[in-house]
Design brief:
Radius of gyration: 15 Å
Structural class: alpha/beta
Distance between the termini: 14 Å
Strand order of the largest sheet: 2-3-1-4-5
Strand content: 5-15%
Largest sheet: 5 strands, parallel
Number of helices: 7
């Protein structure tokens, strides 16, 4: 019997430890992870991003997902995912293409790990949403997960506590 690939997407507001958790889980399970494409893409632009840039990021996220799925691994860890990009488009530009909505509904994710905002905000060259905006976006991510009926777990605490909590969640998946 073929083993079903477990797919875990890590989400949450900016500066909540998503990339750190993705790397820690990949190391723990000895699997590769899909890194956050948006960050590396925006950092190398040397200009302000545009709507078309965010669309390109969404397409790349789907491409990376499909590429990883084709490798038939037991576990796939996504450092951020298309849902964040959808919200980014909606918040910044007020419009989201229907194909993104459709992809969100069709692409299978076993569970979402939502990194809580209990870690301190650390500004950097691409982060835009600290303070109250960070809190609002966090609630938006959670509400969107509920809207799509996606299973999710809030991951809190320091980095080690987050890793342990995430491993517990992943271990509980059938």
């Amino acid at each position: 019997m073929k083993q079903k690939t477990k797919i875990i997407a890590i989400t949450g507001a900016e500066s909540t430890g998503k990339s750190t958790l993705a790397k820690a889980l990949a190391t723990h399970y000895n699997v590769p992870f899909v890194p956050e494409f948006a960050r590396s893409y925006v950092e190398q632009l040397h200009r302000s991003y545009t709507y078309d840039d965010v669309i390109l990021i969404a397409k790349k996220q789907i491409e990376q997902y499909n590429e990883m799925l084709s490798q038939q691994r037991p576990l796939i860890i996504l450092d951020t995912w298309l849902l964040i990009t959808k919200i980014w488009l909606d918040v910044v530009y007020g419009k989201v293409p229907s194909w993104i909505e459709q992809a969100i509904k069709e692409i299978h994710i076993d569970t979402f790990l939502v990194c809580d905002i209990d870690l301190p905000w650390v500004p950097d060259s691409v982060r835009e949403n600290g303070g109250i905006d960070r809190e609002k976006l966090q609630q938006t991510y959670i509400q969107e997960l509920k809207n799509y009926n996606f299973p999710y777990h809030i991951i809190k605490g320091n980095y080690e506590e987050r890793k342990k909590a995430a491993i517990k969640v992943i271990s509980s998946l059938d």
